Amino acid sequence: MRLSLFVVSVAVFIGSSTHVSAAKLGARQSRTTPLLTNFPGQAPLPSLEQHSTQRGANTLPLDNIQGDILVGMKKQKERFVFFHVNDATSFKTALKTYVPDHITSAQTLISDPSEQPLAFVNLAFSNTGLQALGVTDSLGDAQFPNGQFADASNLGDDLSQWVAPFTGTAIHGVFLIGSDQDSFLDQFENDISTAFGASITEVQALSGSARPGDLAGHEHFGFLDGISQPAVTGWETTVFPGQAVVPPGIILTGRDGDPTTRPSWALDGSFMAFRHFQQKVPEFNAYTLANAIPANSAGNLTQQEGAEFLGARMFGRWKSGAPIDLAPTADDPALGADPQRNNNFDFSDTLTDETKCPFAAHIRKTNPRQDLGGPVNTFHAIRSSIPYGPETSDAELASGVTSQDRGLLFVEYQSVIGNGFRFQQINWVNNAGFPFSKPIAPGIDPIIGQSPTRSTGGLDPLDQTKTFSVPLFVIPKGGEYFFMPSISALTSTIAA
Ligand code: HEM
């Protein structure tokens, strides 16, 4: 069956090259409600007031850091506009005018709503994009120069599933537009078209949206997302129990903790790993039902309870966000909704058995906590993804077969691609032996492990030696590695 693609528009910008002033573009129209949403269960964003009172001078230059890098998964709507630069000179001229009034800083995103624009816009470039603009300094990253398509087989991807325009290096950059209303995304996408005219061609736009009602903040399999993010020193004002605290250079290039020497203009940028993941939701549900776990230490389970339990064991959290390390036999929605408690675990009491959390559960593979013997900063990244596509229909649920495209527009920010996203995917998720030195081989991450042999152990707590052969429910359709510079670097270096 051929799947219909959700909101993939291929268009050529035909706007005039006249640059419309910022005021006309509406960027400064103010809001009455915040642009971002603190979904229940996620650690709330700091406010600018907390910053000035609690952090004083001990803060990052938040007005120069593009906002999406630090805010995480708090968007109702987002559009990724991938583009190709046709004319570097006119692009740079437009960029100089566009940046000051449109590129949105982290500071703006935590300011009073009246100071926030109707939509935020951030901008990042691929290596071919920087080359096209004559920015040829090495950024010192091993994977960035060749792009993600060249790396896809190392990530374990089935290249036959990759779709244009990701199959190559033709994407030069991406505008990220975030808001709470589709009309604002449309308006700001039109503004970009008007401002940059024929200097760029839009090669694809992918739109994501929070799920409706109480499911907002949950990804399409049904699980609350964006709960566990590292607290970045200089940005955080509150560290929540269990939260990792990392120096800013784990996320921001050139800052304390970044192991690489960078050109000076790269200070306060970040590498953005973008992945287009399709999710097979009816197939996931059918699998968990067919393989429902019959019982746990609290007693026998109905088939539906056993399916929910298997899903929770695969993720390491229940759909509410409650960690199975703290709620090992049944969901606890109050725990899932409480950021003071829902991240406060470290696997230290189950280092050698899977009674509470399988070694291969998605959140244990991607953040092994005490499995590494203590806090290790290097491999953290900030996730900033958003679901795309419609809700699963009753017909799809009844048939167990996907007929409408849906999934996750996945974003992770880090200072070193090979330490953040890429390390998590290759060295942990796809590695059947990780976490190492366990009495039972963990197998691969049952959610995102990309490997021909999708075998995972430990999913049944009463029969931990049983292995599950889990079909692939998350299919990489493409992606790219981008660099998101600081706001001053956009005008001083990129547009120079
Ligand atoms: C469609 C694909 C994916 C889905 C549906 C998904 C879903 C989730 C969910 C529901 C959580 C739990 C919420 C939380 O703890 O914050 C989570 C956590 C996480 N995911 Fe994913 N994820 C996907 C892809 C990835 C990929 C590709 C990576 C990296 C290679 C990744 C890395 C992480 C990390 C680092 C965490 C936090 C773990 C922790 O700190 O405890 N995810 N994901």
From TrEMBL:
Recall the GO molecular function terms of this protein's record. heme binding; metal ion binding; peroxidase activity
Keyword NAD attributed:
no
- The entry's keywords: Heme, Iron, Metal-binding, Oxidoreductase, Peroxidase, Signal
The stretch of residues making up the signal peptide is 1-22
Cofactor(s) named in the record: heme b
User: Residue limits of the Dyp-type peroxidase C-terminal domain?
Assistant: 261-428
* Pfam families associated with the record: DyP_N (PF21105), Dyp_perox_C (PF20628)
Instruction: Give the top-rank taxon of the lineage listed in the UniProt record for this protein.
Output: Eukaryota
- Locate the DyP dimeric alpha+beta barrel domain: which residues? 64-212
Might you report a single GO cellular component term?
A: cytosol
Q: Which family does it belong to?
A: Belongs to the DyP-type peroxidase family.
Its protein name is: Dye-decolorizing peroxidase
Q: Which organism is it from?
A: Bjerkandera adusta
